Backbone:
């Protein structure tokens, strides 16, 4: 199903998106050396509840995960990249942390992810990898104009990632979003321009370039959820929810401060 939001729904989507952006920034500030991933999860639960929103993750039980996720934020450290399940781990100096958050506020969902270095960056390749996902996301957003097609977005992402020399995994990518977190259309992180669904005002998309330094192969952690690089290499992931408008893409998940 592909949802097209009306103006009233779009206004709610802006509120949901800003909340996601705000919570991610608050978590980033708190994610210092020594902080436990379970504390980040607990703070996320509190921030979601304080805003009157609902977690998209806590009851999430798709075919690829083991039962309900049971947590409020994805915390992927170093070689973990997607669906990182919070666990008893204290952040160390130089960790590469990805936080991925989705909430529903007054019936509309928003989804975003940020990657950053905890404490002191130890390897310039980490920052280059994060920067590459951010540049790929910016290219994707620039390509997301009304009348363009999903393949144009995929091509924009894939072009940036490939030019930077990273292998691209096509198993997990971006997605439509609206009254639920994951909807059609799927937005692969590489593809052919001019192909796929034609973008229309009112369409919400979560765009999410992610990469692993030296592989396109994932392995599933013993927790049944966390996806890690098969080689143990580091990873990065950046995501925004956008709305297609008559003027182009509007980023919904920017923090308000
Ligand atoms: Mg997403």
Residues:
């Amino acid at each position: 199903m592909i949802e097209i939001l009306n103006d009233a729904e779009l206004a709610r989507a802006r509120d949901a998106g800003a909340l996601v952006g705000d919570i991610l920034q608050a978590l980033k500030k708190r994610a210092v050396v020594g902080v436990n991933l379970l504390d980040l999860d607990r703070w996320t639960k509190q921030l979601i509840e304080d805003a009157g929103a609902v977690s998209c993750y806590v009851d999430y039980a798709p075919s690829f995960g083991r039962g309900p996720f049971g947590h409020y934020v994805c915390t992927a450290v170093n070689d973990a990249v997607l669906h990182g399940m919070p666990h008893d781990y204290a952040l160390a100096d130089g960790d590469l942390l990805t936080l991925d958050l989705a909430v529903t506020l007054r019936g509309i969902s928003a989804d975003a992810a940020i990657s950053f270095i905890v404490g002191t960056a130890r390897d310039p390749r980490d920052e280059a990898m994060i920067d590459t996902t951010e540049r790929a996301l910016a290219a994707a957003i620039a390509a997301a104009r009304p009348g363009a097609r999903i393949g144009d977005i995929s091509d924009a992402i894939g072009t940036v990632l490939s030019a930077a020399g990273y292998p691209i995994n096509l198993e997990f990518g971006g997605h439509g979003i609206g009254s639920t977190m994951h909807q059609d259309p799927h937005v692969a992180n590489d593809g052919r321009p001019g192909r796929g669904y034609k973008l229309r005002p009112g369409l919400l998309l979560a765009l999410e370039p992610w990469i692993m330094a030296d592989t396109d192969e994932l392995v599933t952690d013993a927790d049944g959820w966390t996806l890690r690089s098969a080689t143990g290499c580091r990873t990065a992931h950046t995501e925004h929810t956008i709305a297609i408008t008559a003027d182009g893409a509007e980023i919904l998940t920017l923090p308000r401060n």
The first helix runs from residue 7 to 30. The pocket of magnesium ion is lined by residues 111, 175, 206, 208, 239 (CB under 6 Å). The two ends are 34 Å apart (CA to CA).
